[in-house]
Amino acid sequence: MERRRSFPDVLAGGVFVLIGGAFVVGALGYELGTPLRMGPGAFPALVGAAVITLGLAIVIKGFIAGEVVSFGPIPWRAVAVIVLAVLFFGFTVEGLGFVPTSAVTALLTTLASSRVRLLTAVAVAAGLTVAGTLIFVIGLQLRIPLWGPWLGF
Amino acid sequence: MELLDNLALGFSTAFMIQNVLYCFVGVLLGTAVGVLPGIGPTATVAMLLPITFSFEPVTALIMLAGIYYGAQYGGSTTAILINLPGESSAAVTALDGHEMARQGRAGAALAAAAIGSFIAGTVATVVLAVAAPPLARVALKFGPAEYFSLVLLGLIVSITLARGSTLKALAMIALGVLFGTVGQDIYTGTPRFVFGQRELYGGIDFVSVAVGMFGVAEILRNLENEQTRTAVISKVKNLWPTREDRRRMIAPILRGTGLGAALGVLPGGGHVLASFASYAVEKRVSKRPQEFGRGAIEGVAGPESANNAAAQTSFIPLLTLGLPAHPVMALMVGAFIVHGITPGPNVITDEPALFWGLIASMWIGNVLLVLLNLPLIGVWVRMLRIPYQVLFPMIILFAAIGTYSLEFNAYDVYAIAFFGILGYILIKCGCEPAPLLLGFVLGPLLEENLRRALIISRGDASVFLTRPISAVLLALAVAALVVAVLPAIRRRREVVFTEDE
Predict the structure, then answer these.
(1) From A36, A79, A109, residue closest to B454, measured CB to CB
(2) Which residue range or ranges hold the DUF1468 domain (chain A) (predicted)?
(3) Chain A closest CA to B211's CA: distance in Å?
(4) Deepest in the core among A59, A80, A150, B443, taking most CB within 10 A?
(5) CA distance readout (Å), B240 to B108, B186, B254, B369, B371
(6) A143 and A97 part of one domain
(7) Closest CA in chain A for residue B188
(8) Is residue A138 domain-shared with residue A105, that is, in the same domain?
(9) Which residues in chain B have their CB less than 8 angstroms from residue A17's CB?
(10) Is residue A70 part of a domain?
(11) Separation of alpha carbons B362 and B371, rounded Å
């Protein structure tokens, strides 16, 4: 086994160090307390430090003897469209109401596939909106208005 | 005789008409989900959790449990028919099961899986009924120090079972614990890491994390390489196994059941380990090891039994200690809490009808599975033809609706996107999502018990070592950690040796 660098290892370690670091910085802003009465910051600071340590270990290991993990392609279009669709849902469901929000979210999501045709996308979105409305609003009586106040009626 | 009384209570609860009905619905949905590739039981239970809020607690839990073991079972159908395991534990079944299907013995393979699962499910239900009450009595004596050590042990044992690097699994657990600290501090009420957003005071919802890491991340993985699924589905005929097949099935089913029942209690995916272990055992004890991988019925019957037995006994730590051993069990904790019940040793005395009803329903569920699966096999095969382009928008939309309906909080929906991307990156880097989820669920328990134990001992940290049960649990945790790291050390040694030569 020759020494090899592993990009995924370094990336994963970096993510751990970054998030752990952010939590430690945040935790130090809260009261740490004493062992007898630990403050709200003590536990996150401890665990955050552990995450940083483990992250650093993964980075170092990634430079010396990394794991072979094939990173593969990233479906940028799917990532962008799905994130957008989910955020759209959260942002508008209260204002636009269940039906318009579901329809747009479903339509956006279908576009994540690079091989989708517009007609199929519209058909799938329409079908899912109807199914969602029937299951969640009519069947399960979720208290979400079908048409929201932003639409003016 | 107490056991019989309890089981009688359980069956009278489980046989109530709405409970049987929702057990059936759960098993049906679970099987459907297990059959469909690309959506696992964790994401499904997370999505369907809100549906059960309006039910009686026992009905809700029976249905969720049904989804869980239904999915375990459905995964094996696709593994056998199209070599596409719907769940990780069914990967072993695909080895010999699909080979049998290609030789035209799909019927026998499916029957072996069904019969094995049923026997294993029955035995494991009895194990659960016998083992749970004494364990719960022991657990009642646990103080905060013991609970802290127990949770720590659970988290560490879950690494030994995870595939891939120990270091990454540890980091994922710690990261999960860290995300669990978001929200108001339990003792002082200080809001932590909320960026001034009132919506985050309640913390990050577990369902968002589960749906993001297991649903969205998985969909992104599947969209990397889009290809039409060419499902060459073999015709299923001769469902009833021959006499020779039946003779060869019995011992593997019994061994698999034993292995599965024991390993299912372990946290972090005991059922995956159980099916792999059973396959290895069968191959070793077989007089015809060369047949394995070429369509040996023992290679289907053993792992399938082990898998199903483990699925049942993974309820033991949940019902007796309140500790989830599997991401789906963590969702069950959520379901318990929504209905105002704290999972743990008190459930058995406070809610006997619920406890025994749930156990009895598992046996009923197993009967339903056999009745459902063998005749309906044609329906499941047809479901495999649903195109992914319809499936994944459905998962995303229903996940968003389901998560939103938990609290009517838009931040829960945003969290799906965040954990979806984070999960996708980390999974691509070779980290497994399950440890993070376990850490997230158990993290708050860890912190609460750590702080409470220290308050009781007046700040003396040695309390974890001076209380005997706690000390034993910690020693076991250290041992588990050593076991997890050892193979890596040994492998490195071998590397060093080969380089020297």
Answers:
(1) A36
(2) 11-145
(3) 12
(4) B443
(5) 6, 58, 19, 16, 14
(6) yes
(7) A40
(8) yes
(9) none
(10) no
(11) 14
pLDDT band at A23 (very low <50, low <70, confident <90, very high): very high
Q: What is the pLDDT of residues B335-386, one digit of tens each?
A: 887 788 878 888 888 888 888 998 899 889 888 888 887 777 777 777 777 7
Residues A137 and A87 in one domain: yes
Cα separation of B132 and B122, whole Å? 16
Range of the domain at A119: 76-151
Tokens for A68? 């072979």
Question: Which domain-ending residue is among A17, A33, A64?
Answer: A64
Which residues in chain A have their CB less than 8 angstroms from residue B220's CB?
75, 78-79, 82
A16 and B171: CB-CB below 8 Å?
yes
Residue by residue, DSSP assigns B257-277 as: HHHHHHHTTSTTTHHHHHHHH
Same domain, A92 and A138: yes
Q: Which of A19, A38, A69 sits opposite B429 (nearest CB)?
A: A69
Q: Which of A23, A44, A64 is the last residue in one of the domains? A: A64
- The answer, yes or no, to whether residue A117 has pLDDT greater than 80, is yes
Residue B46: closest CA among B170, B218, B268: B218
Residue A9 has its nearest CB partner, among B50, B224, B429, at B429
Interface mutation vs chain B, best among A51, A88, A107, most B CBs within 10 Å: A51
Q: Could you tell me how many CB contacts below 8 A there are between chain A and chain B?
A: 209
Residues A83, A50 share a domain: no
* A1 occurs within a structural domain: no
Is A81 in CB contact (< 8 Å) with chain B?
no
C-alpha neighbours within 13 Å on the C-beta side of residue B62: 34
Residue A58 DSSP SS3? helix
Would you state the structure tokens that stand for residue B156, as one six-digit string? 């560490």
- List, in order, residues 6 or more apart from A8 with CB less than 8 Å away: A62, A66, A67, A69, A71, B428, B429, B430
Verify whether the Cβ–Cβ distance A86 to B178 is below 8 Å: no
Are A89 and A146 contained in the same domain?
yes
Q: Name the closest residue on chain A to residue B170, using Cα atoms.
A: A54
- Who among B54, B167, B388 is closest to A57 (CB)? B167
Same-domain check for residues A87 and A44: no
State how far residue B281 is from chain A, nearest Cα, in angstroms.
29
- Tally of domains within chain A: 2
Q: Does A49 touch chain B (CB under 8 A)?
A: no
Does the residue A31 lie in any domain? yes
- Cβ separation A93–B424 shorter than 8 A: no
* Residues A80 and A140 placed together within one structural domain of the fold: yes
Helix, strand, coil abundance in chain B, percent, nearest 5: 75, 0, 25
Compute mean pLDDT per 10 residues along chain B, 501 residues long, and list them.
Answer: 81 87 89 74 77 83 87 80 71 83 83 88 89 85 88 82 78 94 87 84 86 86 69 60 81 90 76 82 84 84 89 86 80 81 83 88 88 78 78 87 84 94 92 86 88 88 88 90 72 48 34
Nearest CA distance, B78 vs chain A (angstrom)? 24
Beta carbons of B42 and B214 less than 8 angstroms apart: yes
Domain membership flag for residue A34: yes
